[in-house]
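Weekly puzzle thread! Below is a chain. First person to post its structure in token form gets bragging rights.
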Amino acid sequence: MAHIKVPDNLPGILGPMAISTESTKALRELADDEYRSKLSEAGFEHIDIEPTRVYRAEDAREFLSAAGVDVDAIAPEVEGKFLSAFVRAVKPPNAGAKACCGPTCCN
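Winning reply:
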């Protein structure tokens, strides 16, 4: 099994995303697929994820510094790798509702 050393100063998913642009793209696609899958499992249809802003390291300086992360050291590795998005989906009426089994169960 291959082992890839990720930076110790990057918490959570930041480490793997800092390895390369290929890993960042793959992790974003995985997160997108997972998010769509969970919405679909919850009964949503016509799922659309529209990115609205790509964040820079400077945008998260205060948050990352408070977490003990050296922002200047990681800036080149995380620059432009996070985004916010509009998530739109439609949940049809009665999606996931149980079928009525008699005259008193639906009250």
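Puzzle host: Confirmed. Bonus trivia for everyone else. The first strand starts at residue 45 and ends at 55.
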